[in-house]
Design the sequence.
């Protein structure tokens, strides 16, 4: 007999998917992936539920996307009527325009492909630069854009910073989260001026900023090369900041960026578990479970 609601996940997200499943009171099934010597994958799903949630953080996404599509096909073939993708980190959202002739608009192409497979897509703070909302990216699919800002603020509250601590955003895009977190913590905030000149070449300033040793907490949606955060740390130190902390939603981190961030002089780096990483301190399971309650009705 097919059950009404179930959740399945690949190995790379399995530990976190179990926490989510237990909050929903359902079982987390593990999808098996066998990679053949030629690099192709054989994907084997568990028996589906009528509504099956597929939990899949889409960092380093190229192979994951192929396996996700194969799993979705298999689940439909085995009788799933509704498929819900939970991708706490949603890939390819930044390339929303062809900046040079011939460039693929990856956001459009990947979102169309995901929309072919899923009835609902749930993600957290997708990096939408020039796109007004997630429903513009998925015009014909249910799409939930959740924010980690309240979860980050709740975590920082427990750290018991003094009231002169400053919440810092490296650029104007981070203002949406920084402002919300500062309001929740009843702290002042500061936004930097950033210019990106290349993948690993970032210039960042805090014009006119003078600090007198207070703690600062830099908040951003993504750390990838780490250059944005490193430049922000340098700017804050030059301005007279005391201890510097970093809170980030998506810990994409390239190989050496975490070491470089610590070398720049940060006290602690905290991330949400949207992507499994050693810096994960903030669970998104409560946020995701709340959004998925409607699937239980
Ligand atoms: C960009 O606008 C984002 O909000 C992040 O600041 C950026 O993706 C971080 O990238 P990186 O760590 O490579 O500087």
Sequence:
């Amino acid at each position: 007999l097919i059950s009404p609601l179930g959740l399945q996940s690949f190995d790379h997200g399995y530990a976190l998917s179990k926490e989510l499943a237990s909050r929903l009171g359902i079982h987390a099934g593990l999808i098996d992936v066998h990679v053949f010597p030629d690099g192709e994958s054989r994907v084997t799903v568990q028996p589906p539920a009528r509504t099956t949630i597929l939990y899949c953080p889409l960092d380093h996404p190229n192979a994951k996307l192929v396996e996700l599509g194969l799993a979705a096909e298999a689940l439909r073939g085995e009788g799933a009527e509704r498929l819900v993708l939970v991708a706490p980190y949603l890939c390819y959202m930044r390339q929303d325009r062809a900046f040079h002739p011939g460039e693929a608009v990856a956001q459009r192409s990947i979102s169309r492909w995901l929309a072919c497979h899923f009835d609902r897509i749930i993600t957290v703070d997708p990096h939408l630069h020039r796109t007004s909302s997630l429903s513009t990216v998925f015009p014909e699919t249910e799409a939930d854009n959740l924010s980690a800002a309240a979860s980050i603020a709740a975590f920082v509250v427990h750290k018991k910073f003094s009231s002169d601590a400053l919440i810092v955003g490296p650029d104007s895009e981070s203002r949406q989260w920084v402002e919300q977190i500062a309001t929740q913590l009843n702290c002042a905030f500061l936004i930097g001026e950033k210019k990106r000149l290349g993948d690993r070449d970032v210039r960042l300033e805090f014009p006119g900023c003078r600090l007198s040793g207070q703690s600062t907490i830099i908040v951003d949606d993504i750390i990838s090369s780490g250059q944005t955060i490193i430049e922000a740390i340098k700017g804050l130190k030059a301005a007279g900041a005391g201890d510097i902390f970093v809170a980030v939603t998506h810990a994409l981190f390239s190989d050496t960026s975490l070491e470089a961030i610590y070398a720049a002089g940060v006290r602690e780096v905290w991330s949400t578990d949207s992507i499994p990483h050693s810096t994960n301190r903030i669970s998104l399971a409560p946020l995701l479970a709340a959004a998925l309650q409607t699937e239980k009705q």
Summary: The chain has a mean pLDDT of 96. The two ends are 18 Å apart (CA to CA). The first helix runs from residue 14 to 24.
